[in-house]
Amino acid sequence: RAMRNQPPWRLLHEVTATSRHYVDRLFDPDPQKVLQGVIDMKNAVIGNNKQKANLIVLGAVPRLLYLLQQSSSSLELRTECAVVLGSLAMGTENNIKSLVDCHIIPALLQGLLSPDLIFIEACLRCLRTVFISPVTPVQLLYTDPTVIPHLMSLLSSSQRTQEYITQIFSHCCKTPEHQTVLFNHGAIQNIAPLLISPSYKVRMQALKCFSVLAYENTQVSMTLVNVLVDGELLSQVFVKMMQRDQPIEMQLTAAKCLTYMCRAGAIRTDDSCIVLKTLPCLVRMCSKEHLLEERVEGAETLAYLMEPDVELQRIASTTDHLVAMLADYFKYPSSVSAITDIKRVVKTNIQAHDGLSLF
């Protein structure tokens, strides 16, 4: 209450005074003290959005980027700078805007030319966090034509590089032009082996890549249908990912991949992988047992799959009481959890601004 009665300038002074010493230490002439200052800053910002905002306002970002890009900086210092920048990026959308305005993306992309894998991973982790934000212009990934081929070459470096790069690709592939750039630089052959990675996160991000690459793209879809992964056709790999024992997110995304390939003309609508696997999987996603956003995503994808095909519509209508399940979508939610689900879906859709619409 006493703080509330303080004039705004006094509050600002008290808040920034606690943060200023972190920034001041970045300018110390002793490199070891600078390193320790960055490490202390890293510990101070974890889970603290107010501290992150303060440090950004006080000019920490340009200095961190300067230290990150200096060849005279030790590798440990450059890596710690990337880690702190990644933490700052995990704050609010305003934080992301500030980082982008300070040209963080070109600086981090330049960092990927380093021979040190740990530093590369720190840069990629930060880039991933920046690019998945809805306020970051995805076109910044495509400005320099050397970036995409270099990212492709880094895919084999580690599971972390695979996870971060495929997540960047899946979030930054928004137009047919983006699809073409990724396709022309070997996205399919480079990402396909990741579908059988021992890491679930890598498999999942690779799968998401294929869903955004195949969407309304005949060239990509026609190529995908002939791809072999460890001796198995890609479509069969997707079928396995739709099995009931797989996580819902994986089942849904695999069903999307096959749906998009089908709509692009690469798979016939009467193919068994569509009629016996994809369609039943999507119908299953519409049931009450799933979260509302999963049900909506399942229904949207199902509608897109069967839209041009009367026979698929007939099969779907007689599968697992689909019509009754869809009727439930229009009932007023009576439970608090259902209302919470709807609020979450609305928020997610506002942020995403993409995807198909059923209603």
UniProtKB/TrEMBL annotation:
It is found in: Cytoplasm; Nucleus. Transmembrane segments: none annotated. The keyword Nucleus applies. InterPro entries: ARM-like, ARM-type_fold, Armadillo, ARMC8/Vid28. GO terms for biological process: proteasome-mediated ubiquitin-dependent protein catabolic process. PANTHER family: ARMADILLO REPEAT-CONTAINING PROTEIN 8. This is Armadillo repeat-containing protein 8. It comes from Salarias fasciatus. The gene is armc8.
